[in-house]
Amino acid sequence: MREWIVAGNWKMHNTINESIALAKAIKQGLPVVKNGEIIIAPTFTALFSVGEAISGSKILLAAQNMYYEDKGAFTGEISPGMLKDVGCTYVIIGHSERRKYFHEQDNDVNLKVKKALMAGLKPIMCVGETDEERVKGVTQSVVGRQVKEGLNGVEKIDNIVIAYEPIWAIGTGKVATPEQAQEVHFFIRNILKNLYGGSTVDDIRILYGGSVTKDNIGDLIAMKDINGALVGGASLKADAFLGIIRQISGKK
Ligand code: PEP
After folding, report:
1. Domain membership of residue 98 as a residue range
2. Which residue has the CA at smallest separation from atom 3 of ligand 1?
3. pTM, whole model, 2 decimals?
4. CATH number at residue 107
């Protein structure tokens, strides 16, 4: 059974107190969630407190990044074990902002995905093309490469979530049409089928991300291969985030 996911990426926003308040407001307004998962990814400094604030609810905790070593002289980095220790279930890996501003390559993404799995974390691996790449008609080759290289050497895909996030749609208000998104999701699922075999891949969640709101998610989620959303801006207000959750839980 393929469950839907709504994941909120809070990026570098909110103090600890603001994060707790937002988490509590989401917890309070949460509808009864069947066949789905709600995930929030606050900043590292707020993970522990937000974990406490959501305890006893259906909301799961995610980190926005991690390093691929267990421990050592890696100033400023956070290990997968540390994320488990603070209560994370999921970790976002290879977000386009990490790739763009921190120069993460497919190989880094791959090392992180493998290490997260080894530590018992579930990676949400992000892929997506730039505007220029879409215009040039190379969306499939870019996304295909990111998926294959990100999963290189990963034997089991069960605990992995893929997020298709066209870079031109992130934080821009320019959402992909449901058809554009479905085309890429279908393409990604076929790559996974070729790599891992049909039946395993039926249950894999492929999320869409890029300017999702409660007003556009209904049409996106109606698409066969769109299994939820990774939400940035609209996850920073409880009402907006809850609106997306209600739309998805009502349709899937
Ligand atoms: C994101 O950063 O993952 C994202 C999808 O952001 P937004 O919803 O603001 O476009």
Report:
1. 5-251
2. 232
3. 0.97
4. 3.20.20.70
